[in-house]
Known about the structure:
Helix content: 40-55%
Number of helices: 9
Radius of gyration: 18 Å
Strand order of the largest sheet: 3-2-1-4-5-6-9
Largest sheet: 7 strands, parallel
Strand content: 5-15%
Structural class: alpha/beta
Distance between the termini: 53 Å
Amino acid sequence: MGMNSFENKRIIVTGAASGIGLEMVRQLIPFTKEILAVDNSVENLQKLQSQFPEVQHFLKADLSEKSGNELILTWVKTHWTHVDFCFANAGKAIYSPALCQSGEELERLIQLNLTSPIDLGLALLDKAPKGKFRHVITASAMSYWSLPGYSAYSASKAGLLSWAEAVWAEKKGNWLSLAFPIATKTKFFDTAGKGIPAAFPIQNPDIVSRKILLGASIGKKKIFPSRLFRLMLTLDRFLPIIRPIYLAIEYSKYSQWLTKHSKN
C-alpha cells in the first residue's frame, strides 16, 4: 500500500500549481506521469510544466465558475477512460469582517470551495468502474472550528464536512475522503487579504501533502495532517475550555489586524 497505490494511476489534482497541490504533484511524479494538473493561472501552469516536464497533462480551469468542472470532465472524456484518484484541492479564503463580505464574494467562494469539489466528485464517480475511484477533498480545520475573519471560508468548509457526514451515514461514501489541514506555509494567506495573521499552528505543505496522499492510499475517510489539531479536538471534548481559549487568541490577532487595517 502507501505511495505505491498511485503506481501508473490516472490522477487529477486541482489547485496544482501552488501550495499543497504543487507538493502533491511533486510527490506523485515518481509513481505516475498520468497526472492532470488543473489550475486557474496559465502562468503558474507554465512554471509547473517547466519544473516538472514529466507531467503530461495541464488544464486551465477557474473552478469558482460553474463552467470550470465542465472543462475538466470534457478533458477526461476525451483523453481517459476513467479517473483513479481526484484530489480536489483548489480553494481560496477571504479575510474580512463577516458583515463586510458581499453576496457575490460569498457565492464565488461557495462555488469554489463547496459546490465544485462535490459536483466534480459525483460526476467522476458516475463514470468510474465500481470500486476504482477515490475522491479526496481538501477541507480545513475550519470545518470544525470557525475563526474570526474567515466567515465565508469557514462556512464553505463546514458545508463540506456536513455533506460528507451525510454521505457516509448513507453507507454510500467508501469512495470519499476529506482532509482537514491546519494553516499551511503557502501563499494562501497572501491571497486571502493584506497582511492577515496566520492561524496557529502552521505546517509545511510537503508534510501536509504527504499525509493526505498516504491517507488517501489506504482509503481513510477523514485525514488529519496535524496530530496537534486532532489532539485539540479530542481534548476539547473533555476540557471544553480548549476551544474558547484558542478562539480568544485568534480574535486578538483579528482585532489587531482590523485596527491596523482601518487606519490604512
